[in-house]
Amino acid sequence: MSGAIQSVSTSAEIEQVAALARYIWTEHYVPIIGSTQVEYMLDRFQSAAAIKQQINDGHEYFLIRVTPDDAVVGYMDVVTQPDASKLFLSKLYVSVGARGSGLGRQLFDHARTLARQRNLATLWLTVNKFNPSLQTYLRWGMVNTGSIVKDIGNGFVMDDYQLEISI
User: Fold this and answer.
1) Assuming Cys at both sites, which of 14, 42, 73, 79 could form a disulfide with 88, CB separation 3.0 to 4.6 Å?
2) Residue 111 near residue 78 (C-beta atoms within 8 A)
3) pLDDT of residue 70
4) What is the DSSP letter of 122?
5) From CA 66, how far away is CA 71, in angstroms rounded?
6) Contact (CB, 8 A) for 143 and 165
């Protein structure tokens, strides 16, 4: 399956990302980190207001749509870090019904293309240690470079691995 990737800029598109995030995160992360932390993270990081602020701060969000009904089934967020010659893949999510279709890989490849176009040396991300997507990233050639535990407030931490791939 192939999708059309579009940059997010309008309020309506930001609302689409926030709604998709709520759907995906609730389905995917509640079994891993629990509903209380998922709600906290959605409010803090994936509400429309938070996404708008992130875009103002230099994040770039993208939606992926599929035909025939032009359905939005996934999104990603990247941050260029020119001083480190890196592109941070902050978020890459595909809805449950579209997983395994190649759309996640299409978003990942788009991030790699952005990194190449910007002459960056590395694409990197963090992934929860218990997220099944970890195995997918490793299959795509990413390398585990270590563990990161980050306090995100309200008594919650993100317990992740950092993964990288050279561009």
Assistant:
1) 79
2) yes
3) 84
4) E
5) 5
6) yes
Low-confidence ranges of the chain (pLDDT < 50): none
C-alpha 135: how far from its chain's center? 16
Could you tell me which residues come within 8 angstroms of residue 27 by beta carbon, excluding any fewer than 6 positions away? 95, 96
> CB-hemisphere CA count at 13 Å for 158?
17
pLDDT at 100: 84
Residue 30 is encoded by which pair of tokens?
Answer: 């509640």
Q: What are phi and psi of 63, to 5 degrees?
A: -105, 150
pLDDT, position 120: 98
Tell me the chain's radius of gyration from C-alpha atoms: 15
d(CA 149, CA 17): 26
Burial 102-115 (b: 16+ CB within 10 A, else e): ebbebbbebbbebb
> Exposed/middle/buried for 137, CB within 10 Å: 0-12, 13-18, 19+?
buried
- Which two three-digit tokens encode residue 6? 């579009």
